[in-house]
Design goal:
Elements lengths: L10 H11 L1 E2 L2 E2 L5 E2 L2 H15 L15 E2 L4 H14 L2 E3 L3 H6 L3 E3 L2 H23 L4 E2 L7 H12 L9 H14 L44 H8 L6 H31 L3 H7 L10 H5 L15 H21 L5 H12 L9 H32 L4 H4 L4 H19 L1
Antiparallel strand pairs: 1-5, 2-3, 4-7, 5-6
Helix pairs in contact: 3-5, 9-12, 9-14, 12-13, 12-14, 13-14, 14-16
Pfam family, one: TNP-like_RNaseH_C
InterPro entries: TNP-like_GBD, TNP-like_RNaseH_C
Length: 420
């Protein structure tokens, strides 16, 4: 059953339609009654929108703007509205055809046929839901195609801009979106509304401790022994501790995924298989690699994602923390890239990286360039988001002083714009 997009049109569209036609002719309902004034037409269109535009919490705004039930007034109104719209015509006096003919003409616009399709579809949907499935009520606002448009927009934006995915690409993109829901559900410049849809699955179960964790524990990088014990102790009754456990596992798994990206950078620059074994792991069954496995497209890509070793993950996390701490205090200084390289070379341990002495310096250089470029860009993005107001104050309050200063600047800018 086809539901027209006209059901979700805004009232402005109707106003524009009336403005375009300049004048409205008599509107006949088929029952010898007419609507002769613009006010009567606008009142009818308003009731029409109310009848198909209801969602939870808006029942007080209009008699028809409420949930559709088996005995509600929507059914009789829709039947009557279909007869009215079938007779609805507009008086056109400004088009080339009317000017050439020297007299106004009566016309019908495509939106009217769309409204007829919409209302007939709602009548059939109501009959199906109430008679076959015995539901108590439904909200017409939820029967529209904007969620579908948002979904396809996310399919096209996944990984890279692919406006014409083949069946195999679409299959794996769909699986990834169903599970992860990582992309924003709505584009800033989209012509459809934000929908309230959620992921079918809650992926937090990927980060929760299983019954086999005690038998196969993984040492969390960059954490003390006491913190590791707290993170791995899933029998703790504290709800906040459980949230910290999940958050820490998410951070570690995301760090492993990003560290794998850097591993691929190293491999492209130096293809020595002996050196490869020092910064990648041959075992992929650890919990820390769960997110990498989730992002793996075995049928789509020829080369699998990289699984970094424990030492490489530790080095990556320590390096990223050092970069952000340095930028928080010295972002305005010159030669940031050179200073960061000196700091990383002095603070991190590289004795295990590469088994060939001739390759170690190459690997270090690629690692420095990649991680500095990645996290300087990330740090700047965070500042820009704060200045734009995209990060809430409760999150900024837990960040460094420079982030708090950026948020204060954003608040002053907002107040200044309001005063203007």
């Amino acid at each position: 059953m086809k539901v027209s997009v006209a059901a979700q049109a805004l009232s402005a569209r109707t106003a524009a339609m009336l403005k375009y036609t300049n004048a409205v002719s008599n509107l006949h309902t088929g029952h010898s009654s007419t609507m002769e004034t613009t006010a009567e037409v606008v009142a009818f269109i308003d009731k029409l929108f109310d009848s198909v535009n209801c969602k939870p919490g808006c029942a007080k705004k209009g008699k028809l703007r409420k949930a559709v039930k088996n005995n509600s007034k929507h059914h009789s109104f829709w039947t009557e509205a279909i007869e009215i719209i079938k007779e609805l015509k507009f008086e056109d006096s400004s088009s080339k055809i009317a000017v050439k003919a020297g007299r106004p003409r009566l016309v019908r616009v495509p939106s009217l046929e769309g409204w007829i399709t919409t209302l007939e579809s709602f009548i059939r949907i109501s009959k199906l839901l109430f008679e076959k499935y015995s539901i108590e009520y439904f909200y017409p606002r939820f029967i529209y195609q904007d969620p579908l448009e948002n979904f396809f927009g996310r399919i096209r934006s996944l990984n890279y801009r692919n406006i014409n995915p083949d069946a195999n690409t679409f299959l794996h993109a769909f699986k990834s979106l169903v599970l992860t829901n990582l992309l924003s559900p709505h584009s800033k410049f989209a012509n459809c509304e934000v929908d309230d849809g959620d992921s079918l699955l809650d992926v937090n179960f990927l980060f929760e401790s299983s019954s086999n964790d005690k038998e196969n524990r993984f040492k969390m990088p960059s954490t003390s022994q006491q913190q590791q014990q707290q993170i791995l102790d899933h029998n703790s009754p504290s709800g906040s501790l459980k949230d910290e456990i999940i958050l820490e596992k998410i951070k570690v798994q995301c760090s492993a995924y990003t560290a794998g990206f850097l591993c691929r950078k190293l491999t492209k620059k130096n293809q020595c298989k002996s050196c490869l074994k020092t910064y990648t792991s041959s075992s992929t069954n650890e919990n820390i690699y769960a997110y990498i496995k989730l992002r793996e497209y075995e049928m789509l890509k020829n080369d699998n994602l990289a699984y970094p070793s424990e030492n490489f993950i530790k080095m990556y996390r320590d390096g990223s923390n050092l970069i952000h701490k340095y930028l928080n205090k010295n972002a305005c200084e010159k030669n940031i890239g050179k200073n960061l390289k000196k700091m990383l070379n002095k603070s991190l341990r590289f004795s295990w990286l590469g088994c060939c002495s001739s390759h170690t310096e190459i690997l270090k250089s690629v690692f420095f360039n990649s991680i500095i470029r990645l996290h300087v860009h990330n740090w700047c993005n965070i500042i820009n988001k704060i200045l734009k107001g995209d990060i809430k104050q409760k999150y900024v309050s837990k960040m460094a002083d420079i982030h708090k200063s950026a948020y204060e600047k954003y608040k002053k800018l907002v107040l200044r714009n309001k005063s203007v």
